[in-house]
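Re: export button greyed out
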Amino acid sequence: MDALLELLQNDARLSTSRLADRLGRTEAEVAAMIADLQAKGAILGYHAVVDPERAGQRHVSALIEVKLTPERDGGFDRLAQRIARFDQVTSCYLMSGGYDLAVLVEGEDLREVARFVSEKLSTLDGVLSTATHFQLKVYKQSGFIAGEARVDERLAVSP
Amino acid sequence: MKPLQDRIAQHVRDLPRSGIRDFFELVVGRDDVISLGVGEPDFCSPWHIREAAIFSLEKGQTSYTSNLGLLSLRQEIAKYVEGLFRVSYDPAGEILVTVGVSEALDLVFRALLNPGEEVIYHEPCYVSYNPSIVLAYGKPVTIQTKVEDNFVLRASDVEAAITDKTRIILLNFPTNPTGAVEPVEELEKIAALAIKHDLIVVTDEIYCELLYGGSDGMSPGEHTSIASFPGMRERTVLLHGFSKAFAMTGFRLGYACAPTILTEAMMKIHQYSMLCAPMMSQQAAIEALKNGAPEVERMRRSYAQRRNLMLKRFAEMGLPCFSPGGAFYMFPDIRKYGLTSKEFALRLLEEESVAVVPGSAFGQAGEGSVRACYATAYEKIEIAMDRMAALVKRLG
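Workaround output, generated via the alternate export path:
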């Protein structure tokens, strides 16, 4: 299971037949393993990792530190889930340290993100404060170094 | 003036060029070729190791080190070797850091052999064994292992090869080029022979972290070193290094572990010829030993997956192939096509633009096979396998 996840985390496009070849299993076994991982929510989804700058996309991304008032029953969960459901929110984590939630937000431009923060996020009951940090440049994203293509420089034949 | 070629020492003139080198020249400069001919990992050295080398340069650590190597590195090696091989060596005098295992091999033969003394080893084997022995004025005595016997080195064959001139038994498991792993029972018998005939064992265990256990090859196998058997530590020179498991080939760093007297003898030659291994490589190696284990395992799993892929594809194209227990090589058997290994490799290169190494480059016992390295990108292996299948189909 770990090896399968490792492969998919590195390249989610791999077909079940290719995965089967690499794992020394049958295609049916691999398909069942993936179905199981999806069913129990271990795999949340699949997507391409895009560097918006190189893709020429209009794109702004921000990390928002959010402080919350925990609720008597359920702590931060209910409010955090409510925040996470907004389409603009790409990731949402409960944090230790100086604030409670790290909310990653994406939008086409600064205004869109600012509007989301001022109109949606900070107006929610229980949200005490927000601090918005705009992302300036991508060096590494989801395990991939931006702008780097690996070139094989080994000798073609060696002992 | 005498022609320059006449100035070359006779034993160097007699040394054949490496079959690998010949093949390399055919491949070089051809961009369309997918090469399964390499003998090194396709991973870069893990970043934390490279970063340690950079930091060492930043700190200005550009001096010589002790001839034996940095004491702090030897201490780390001692810990690592004890964990992996269950043999303990004293960092103060029983470990010599060398410029790759290749240098260590050269040292051990030069230190131990008088002219004409014999070294027994198993073929197919790494291309340097024969020349290293010959350049030390020793006599290579080979044992041909066979695919039908899973390339196991039989103690009975070793015993039959022993003469009153035999001084060393040289072992390499997992084996380059076959990926073979020696069964422990057989290794025990070879140890008993070494004791009975009072021989030194030189064991090159450079691939020992890269084992593929379990039916799917995904679990780390258990490595057994001949040095760990009773009575063997005092007659064994254990060779290991950083090139393969840590993907550090270009750092050129290996080591020899042996009783003090043998280490001292090797060090004598090393101090005059090499002085010491490069400082920054040694600093990188300390980092590798301290923190490299997770990366080694990640790379091993990746090799295991590619091994599975290649094994399956060979089976599908009807190319018989021994299932290797270690290293990162496949050694498929091409005899049924009626070609020599060189002819097969040439046709594969010319007709399908895939480079493999003819088995004959690894000694006579390698004839009839080719070496295909799976330390290359999956996507390239897939294309190479398609192309190879096309050739195999035409050959019928």
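The interface with chain B takes residues 3, 6-7, 18, 21-25, 150, 152, 154-159 of chain A (CB under 8 Å). The button fix ships in the next patch.
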